[in-house]
Description:
- The structure holds two protein chains of two kinds.
- By secondary structure, chain A is of the alpha/beta class.
- Chain A contains twelve helices and 21 strands.
- In chain B, about 30% of the residues lie in helices and about 20% in strands.
- The two termini of chain B are about 35 Å apart.
- At the A-B interface, strand 17, helix 9 and helix 10 of A face helix 2 and helix 10 of B.
Amino acid sequence: MKPRRLAAxxxxxxxxxxxxxxxxxxxARAGAAPGEAVTAVVGARLLTGTxxxxxxxxxxxxxxxxxxxxxxxxxxVPEGAQIIDAAGRVVTPGLVDSHSxxxxxxxxxxxxxxxxxxxxxxxxxxxxSIHPEGEGPDEFQFRRALAEGVTTVVxxxxxxxxxxxxxxxxxxxxxxxDDMVILFPADMKMALGRKGYYASKGVMPTTxxxxxxxxxxxxxxxxEYGEALERHAKAKAKDPKAAPPARDLGxxxxxxxxxxxxPVHIHVDSSDDIMTAVRLAGEFGFSRLSLGHAVExxxxxxxxxxxxxxxxxxxxxxxxxxxxxxxxxxxFLSDKGVQVDIMTDADVxxxxxxxxxxxxxxxxxxxxxxxLRSITLNPARTMGLEARIGSLEAGKDADLVVFDGDxxxxxxxTLMVFIEGRVVYESGKEPR
Amino acid sequence: MKACAVIFAFAALAAVTAVAEEKxxxxxxxxxxxxxxxxxxxxxxxxxxxxxxxxxxxxxxxVPAGAEVVxxxxxxxxxxxxxxxxxxxxxxxxxxxxxxxVSNPDAxxxxxLDGLNPFDKRFAQAARAGITALMIAPGRxxxxxxxxxxxxxxxxTAEEMVLLEPAGVKLTLGEGPKDAFGPKGRLPGTxxxxxxxxxxxxxxxxEYVRKRKDHEAGVAAAKGKKGAEPPAAPPxxxxxxxxxxxxxxxxxxxxxxxxxxxxxxxxxxxxxxGFKAVLVGATEAYKSAGEIARRRIPVVVGVMxxxxxxxxxxxxxxxxxxxxxxxxxxxAIAAEDAMGxxxxxxxxxxxxxxxxxxxxxxxxxRAVTLTAAEILGVADRIGSLEPGKDADIVVFDGDxxxxxxxVAxxxxxxREIKIPEPLRGPRP
Lengths: 432, 428
């Protein structure tokens, strides 16, 4: 029974780690591969991300997955499991930022999130722009975010273009971008109502209706492209030499939207643009529509709830209505039955501040369980990843965070972060 | 909308004229944090004529006949918060006017007061968030920006709002001016270019000061001599006057600088020309704490590192304020007038971040009240709960550093600012 290095740090943190069984020493270090052992995080208050809480619970981790979650005493800890005593601590799922531009900082003086040569660029892939460690303003941001419990981010193109390109979902576990990507293409990024740049050039869109037209035209063309592909498939059955339509990278990408294979995320601010987004979603049958920023979404909350539109609130968490009342966007929409995600829009707000963004919503009245859900299970659902991440439930990836207290409290510190069962951050063992 | 503004204007005017006749107010029952002295449990503050008349134990502060009594039981009663750097009120809803005069990197001739719109909604929003005074400064495009003003977020005219004007002159080093002028092929496209703009202007100001002194001496000399004509006054130069006042010690430079090398450039300029300075923003000040402390220069830190795609703030540290205070530097905390967490509503959260970074709670509260007032030059009027000071008071419904705590009541010059209940905001 050899204590491992984690134990030393654990003692300093008040995190007592007891190791039983054969595993020990360097082999059990953070680099231990998933599947080598069972880890049991024992005794913590579990905030599961679904809105439910367990006052004192156990999370069993095996093979990078959560094997079991339950009340202390009700979950059997197998012989030989590595036990992390987390009594008095708070465990949450790894936090998920529903919208981020991390890793897209200026390189060569120009930011990497907006290709401002053409307002319609569905062919662009965000993963081709991301610096995996961050550079410029993003330097250290991946690491800092991980140290504050953020394990997954949705990386999207910026809002300079009407159709910006294809998004990705990344886990902040380091390595190359390809090592980090867990879903690509994750959705298609669009923006309505932001016509400033092209208007200044006298290029469409100089109006809001111009922006809507460009989206509609691109989707109609993508649908036609799809029909041409289908015709070709049929023709090929008869004549193997039938020529396929010329490849079109943009239409290929948008065809996934038309065929409901990927959802759509649209940056909007005003209520009229929000309803234009809803109109387009209805017209083309988007598999799911999520709206980013959507500051005036509170004016049309009923419509959004009825249609199952997701609102990704942030970076500004509050606004003011026409009577000067502060509007708690996340709390308000959530009460109206809208699925709310919360974002940093990093680096508008630092990626590492995700839990404080949610805290602002709680301050002005959002239910804390719902607020946590907005940075865990809800964004997972928005991206269609709810079977894999976002909550402490058996079968999901073992992405979890051990906090020394209420995760919304500024004073609370992160003790440990796991991604797929691996310890990727431990307080007191930060690099540099 | 317009009608609303007009009604508000009348209300505000009525408010100003009514102050003197208003009945006394007693806020009692809460924990008083006077900042200038020890905390008082179950305390009371007496307000008369817009000023603080008495502060003490609830049982010891006499309630005058006819006074309005505000029950603050369970609350925390603090001096109004002070935001040391904001650019609100400078935009124009009817056209592209902003906080930066981007026609020239040196805009020293400008006064912030001439661009200030009291009806910018953000003033009312700031007041409801417990901010009872702000220094309004231009943005960060100009190397030498306008003369700043300390204002209260109430009143219908800039004159009514002003507490101190000019409060200083804003300088900016680093990315701001480079980004604003460099891409146009204009000076400054580099950091050394910005330093040159300041140095050149200050040298011209030195010359201006010398000519004025020579002129004064000439006038004095002519007085004694019969038939001697006094020398002609040198022509006034509005672009140089603020910098001349800076060199004469009558004005303070608020220098926005973030990276350690920009901070060092600011210190070099201060050493060269010997003027009063405050560093603002100061993201990497913790790397130069010794150098700053040695010169006794105060610092206003932004702790959020908020600002999209800004390289110069990337090394933001929550420990910045704590390290500066440890080095003996007078340090205020600003929320920064920005998006998201840095929003004006969350100044207390900014201070809470500094506490997480190691600053003690009392110093953090002082950093958003009395220390800020001292740095801005208005501590004789605001910043603490002391008899004789303006009755600018904020009542929190709990510990101001806890995330669930909200601002319950706000008084500016003894007049209560009504806070509407937030939309969908049942108590957590």
